[in-house]
Amino acid sequence: MNKNKKLPKLGFLYLDYVMRFFDHSNFKGWPDKIDQVVYHWGNDKQRFINEVKRKKIEVLIGNIPATAYETFRQIARALPDVTFVPSLDTQFANKSKENVTHFCKKYNLPIPKTEIFYEYAKARQFLETANYPKIIKKSYGPSNYGGYYVHKVDSFAEADALLSRKKYYPVYVQEFVPMKADIRVMLIGHKPVCAFWRRPPEGEWLTNTSQGGSMDYMNVPKPALEIAIQASKAANAEYWACDIALGYDNKYRILECATAFAAFPYIRDWIGQYLMWKFSEGRFGQPHIPLYNWEELGKISSHILRSMRYITFAKQIETVRCEDGAELFNSLSPQQIPLIDTTLRFDEEWPSEIWDRQSVLTSSTPWQMVKQKRIDDSEAAESDLLTEQDKVLDKAQLLAFLNQVKGVGMTTAERIIEQLGTAGVMAALNGQTEQLLTIKNIKQKKAELIVEQWRKYRNAVTA
Question: For residues 362 and 323, what is the distance between their CA atoms, to the nearest angstrom?
Fold first, then answer.
């Protein structure tokens, strides 16, 4: 280790209206200035590239939301001397659920049986003869918002009604696997550093805590950790999270995996320490994170965990039990799984020319028109089949609608239309809800409220 060797120039990647995962406090002790570059959306690609070059950033650290992923593919190609952390290939699974499926299939990772259709006619043909129940999900977007974009359908009639109402593209269908619970595993350097159960309320199937589910940290099974480790290594991820379902058949299946996930501040500190070790060639030490540490930390109130910082552990020692049977952190040792470095890759594993299938492929026939036995290709016949949600409101109508949504107001309504345009607002209201989250002061709950009010407005118009 050469302490006099120049450290690489680090930079934080930020985006307007997107919550910041890292800040300078996560890299406590880094001796040089860590710069930052903010992407402002819209036509900002070249300015962003120029700023990274001007600031001579060598390592750009930060997560990229799904809506900006393809743009940053282009940005990364224009900056071949800049190391993106995580890499764009590592963040491939962030973009969509279909990308998670492609990733897991390539690396033989266990997932529910999944079908992805880019032609509505093929989706309809499959669903007409499928065994039910099935799960239909919105593939593209940052999350399921507490189950809002995840639907259990018990018959073709329900599937047909759902896809007539929600323009999900592609049609993403999974087998319904009754599950006892799912497990969130977070990893740094391919080592699990936090894991917990999420259990559905009695009689329900969604495990989201927003839907009444519960969570606990005890006795997370080793097979689930091993699956998460395999996925992290396959993705070459500096940090990673997996959601793994445990079915009533006692099999484990990956539901989600990504580098973008909610994490306690101390976990972001650990990631920062790991990255400082990685890019300093050992000048900084790795964080010492005992396996199953979460069992003890999980006994602390969650509101305290949300503010705890700079947690460290001494090197492991042999575990003991008191004569009265009291546990003395016996689950924290042995270490077993070390933090390891990721490899630097120069080729693209998931090039957009092949894998950006939502852009490359488009269904030749809308879902509503597939329902017809015979299709009249004339423009007049097609317009007769359009539903009310296909019609585009003008700016004045959109302003009037948005202004009446509680908590929005005229200023925010004007900002939404100015940033997204009328067509973009309509797309957000009719399925691409994640676009609303790019607007300043629009968070998850408010986005859900806007979409719910739109549904009521549309239903009232068509009644």
Answer: 68
Flag the least confident range among 290-304, 315-329, 406-420. Answer: 315-329
Percent of the chain with pLDDT over 70: 84
What is the C-alpha separation between 210 and 132, in angstroms, rounded?
26
**pLDDT: is 387 or 400 the higher one?**
400
Prior bond to 334 cis, omega within 30? Answer: yes
Closest CA to 114 of 129, 95, 94, 99: 99
User: pLDDT: is 196 or 368 the higher one?
Assistant: 196
Question: What whole-number percentage of the chain has pLDDT above 90?
Answer: 54
Is residue 413 within 8 A of residue 399, CB to CB? The reply is: yes
Burial tier of 223 (Cβ tally within 10 Å: 0-12, 13-18, 19+): middle
Q: 225-259, pLDDT tens digit by residue?
A: 999 999 999 999 999 999 999 999 999 999 999 99
State how far the alpha carbon of 139 is from the alpha carbons of 78, 103, 128, 323, in Å. 28, 14, 21, 54
Structure tokens at 263: 């994490």
pLDDT in tens, 358-393: 777 776 677 777 765 333 333 333 333 334 344 457
Return mean pLDDT, the chain. 85
Number of helical H runs and strand E runs in the chain: 17, 15
Place of tokens 């940052």: 142
Q: Where along the chain do its domains lie?
A: 10-87, 390-462
Main-chain dihedrals φ then ψ at residue 449, nearest 5 degrees: -65, -40
Whether the domain at 10-87 and the domain at 390-462 fall into the same CATH topology: no
Dihedral sign, CA of 257, 262, 266, 271? positive
Evaluated on CA atoms 132, 137, 139, 143, the torsion sign reads: negative
* Under 8 Å between Cβ of 218 and 295: yes
Average pLDDT (124-136) is 95
- How far apart are the C-alpha atoms of 101 and 96, rounded to whole Å? 9
**Architecture of the domain defined by 390-462:** Orthogonal Bundle (1.10)
Amino acid letter at 56?
K
Pick the closest to residue 153 from 172, 125, 169 (CA basis): 172
Q: Which CATH class is domain 10-87?
A: alpha beta
Q: How many CB atoms lie within 10 A of CB 434?
A: 20
